[in-house]
Amino acid sequence: DRKSFVVALDGPAASGKGTLGRLIADHYGFAYLDTGSLYRGVARRLLDAGADPGDEAAAARAAKEFSLDQIDGRDIRTREVGAAASKVAAMPSVRAALLDFQRRFAANPPGGARGAVLDGRDIGTVVCPEADVKFFVVASPEVRARRRWLELRAARPSLTEREVFEDLAERDARDAARADAPMTRAEDAELLDTTHLTIEAAFAAARRVIDGVFQRCEG
Ligand code: CDP
Ligand code: CDP
């Protein structure tokens, strides 16, 4: 049997990775993993326990004990969880504890799927450097802030677009500057700028790239 076909999606917050990842996974019958949910899940646990997200020993323990079912039904999309997630994500012990799960998911996708789509910050560089297709998904900071604000404001009507802009800027800067697995475009990653693209147009562009790789694999 064939090795799993892996699609890596990296890039800054709210660039459209998750939306694209789910569409790609559905279309090709691949399994999908939002790796940000792992870091958010660890952060959520620490915040719930009243622990300081800067406490590396506590964060490493939470990461070692983490499993996806812990976040079922939990709200991990809040700005507090996002901020804490990017703090724990800078800790090498936390990243190391979550690495195996991500690699196993890619190599052996659940449900017997023929491939896997993973989205995050370091998929194409660290988690799956041998991925079959890599995208680095970007969009202007203003457009990303607007998109995320539109998602969050229903739950928090007092939240301003400016606050979301600042949250994302702070998180992106931390994610790009950390020593361990920083957010960077892999040399062989296709740059996908979604600033002026609808979801459908971004998905079509991604499909063209993936179909091209499929043809090369099979021809
Ligand atoms: O996963 P990531 O944080 O990169 O972004 P996302 O959750 O996929 O997208 C953030 C928001 O932007 C979602 O509400 C998407 O519907 C929206 N979006 C968009 O309006 N246009 C795109 N081309 C991509 C995403
Ligand atoms: O959805 P959004 O793009 O806002 O963030 P996310 O993908 O849910 O990731 C939350 C945080 O987890 C990021 O700001 C990163 O600090 C961290 N993360 C990471 O370090 N490596 C990954 N592969 C995925 C997420």
Question: Explain this structure to me?
Answer:
- With 219 residues, the chain is α/β, with parallel strands linked by helices.
- Strands 2-3-1-4-5 form a 5-stranded parallel β-sheet, sandwiched between helices.
- It has 9 helices and 5 strands, in the order E-H-E-H-H-H-H-E-H-E-H-H-E-H.
- The chain is globular and about 55 Å long.
- The mean pLDDT is 96.
- It has helices at 17-28, 36-48, 56-64, 79-88, 92-107, 123-127, 141-152, 161-177, 199-218, and strands at residues 5-10, 31-34, 115-120, 133-138, 190-193.
- Helix 7 packs across helix 8 (161-177).
- Helices cover 52% and strands 12% of the residues.
- The two termini are 18 Å apart.
- The structure holds cytidine-5'-diphosphate (2 copies).
- One cytidine-5'-diphosphate (CDP) binds next to helix 2, helix 4 and helix 8.
- Could you tell me the radius of gyration in angstroms? 17 Å
Average pLDDT value?
Answer: 96
Distance between the termini: 18 Å
Unreliable sequence segments: none
The H-and-E topology, N to C, reads as EHEHHHHEHEHHEH
* Mass-distribution shape: globular
Q: Main beta sheet, described?
A: 5 strands, parallel
Strand order of the largest sheet: 2-3-1-4-5
Q: What structural class results from the helix and strand content?
A: alpha/beta
What bound compounds does this protein have? cytidine-5'-diphosphate
Number of helices: 9
- In percent, how much strand structure appears in the residues? 5-15%
- The count of strands amounts to 5
> What share of the residues lie within helices?
40-55%
Organism: Amphiplicatus metriothermophilus
Subcellular location: Cytoplasm
GO molecular function: ATP binding; CMP kinase activity; dCMP kinase activity
InterPro entries: Cytidylate_kin, Cytidylate_kinase_dom, P-loop_NTPase
